[in-house]
Amino acid sequence: MTRKITLLAIWLVSSLSFAQPGGPVGHLTIFSEDGDKFTLILNGEIINDTPQTNLRVEDLNQPYYNAKIRFEDKTLTDVSKNNLMLTDVDGIFSDVTYKIKRDKNNKTKMKMNYFSSIPVQPNFIPASNVHVIHYGQPRPAIVSQPVGGVTQTTTTTTTQTNGVNSGGVNLGVGVNVDGVNLGLGVSINDNIGGGTVTQTTTTTTTNNSNAVIVDHDGPIRGCGGRSCMTPGNFNAALSTIKNQSFEDTRLKTAKQVITANCLNVDQIIQIANTFSFEDNKLDFAKYAYDFCSEPRNYFKLNGIFTFSSNVDELSDYVQSRQ
């Protein structure tokens, strides 16, 4: 009997584990009452690539977020809301909805107000007009080539020696495929009674080594998609930083290290925690953003600060770098 109860308990625990693989999450819906398209930014991360009028973000695992609304219509003022809550008074994650509307006295001033909240429903199906994004799911990167990678100029000189020339059509096409440049020149001429056509095609190719990797947040700053430091190299660098006697020297050394390398968020946090003064932590956190290999997780650095003013300042800085 005891064995049966034990097996039943193990089965129940296993079932609960599989039922909630990622832990509790909340959902956020924001809609524009007047149909104004907007982009949502949560903790400095751009959520939707294309502006929407009705946006739903699922699987948010933090109880609070700093939110910013940026409108497609640049005449409308941005809306910011700090500590947007996704839990109820008991700390249980909810499905929360906010509404954006225009100020009655100033049509260019926008407001975002709490609208409703319901318990999270596992099988909830949103309306067809709602744009849904699952937070944290990676999206494929797009390689963007700089404009002007291939320049082709076609110059055609036609000399008619006998008969009539009815004209010609000249086509110049430049194609770049993975660094291989293909040039194609086509000339179609209709000469009645004979003639001489001389065509000269010149193709100039520029180096496309400056191509950048782009994701849904825009260009990846600093690292260009490169990997972060290996654990061995990072531990050596961290030891060098810690061995500096003065904090100012430690900060300069840390900046020197990160300027030449990419770091992930956890590595940046470890270096930031070597500083005793919050001003130096904030200084380094700002500087390190451009060299972070995972900028969408930069909100984790909020935990290194004691004062909320520093959290707000870092969040504003990250948003300004988008």
Brief descriptors of the model:
single chain, five-stranded mixed β-sheet, 16 strands, 36% strand, 322 residues, alpha+beta, Immunoglobulin-like, 3 domains, four-stranded antiparallel β-sheet
Could you explain how this protein is built, in words?
The protein is of the alpha+beta class and 322 residues long. It has helices at 2-19, 231-242, 247-259, 265-272, 278-288, 308-320, and strands spanning 26-32, 38-42, 45-46, 54-60, 64-71, 79-85, 94-102, 110-119, 131-134, 142-144, 150-159, 164-177, 180-192, 196-205, 212-215, 218-219. The protein has three domains: 14-134, Immunoglobulin-like, CATH 2.60.40; 150-205, no CATH class; 218-320, no CATH class. It has a five-stranded mixed beta sheet with strand order 8-7-1-4-9, with no helix packed on it. Strand 15 (212-215) and strand 16 form a beta hairpin. Helix 2 runs antiparallel to helix 3 (247-259) and helix 5 (278-288) runs parallel beside helix 6. The chain is elongated. 20% of the residues are buried.
Short structural summary:
With 322 residues, the protein is of the alpha+beta class. Helices cover 23% and strands 36% of the residues.
The helix/strand series, from N terminus to C terminus, equals HEEEEEEEEEEEEEEEEHHHHH
CATH structural architecture of the largest domain: Sandwich
CATH topology of the largest domain: Immunoglobulin-like
Distance between the termini: 62 Å
Average pLDDT value? 75
Lateral arrangement of strands in the main beta sheet:
8-7-1-4-9
Which oligomerization state do the chains in this entry correspond to?
single chain
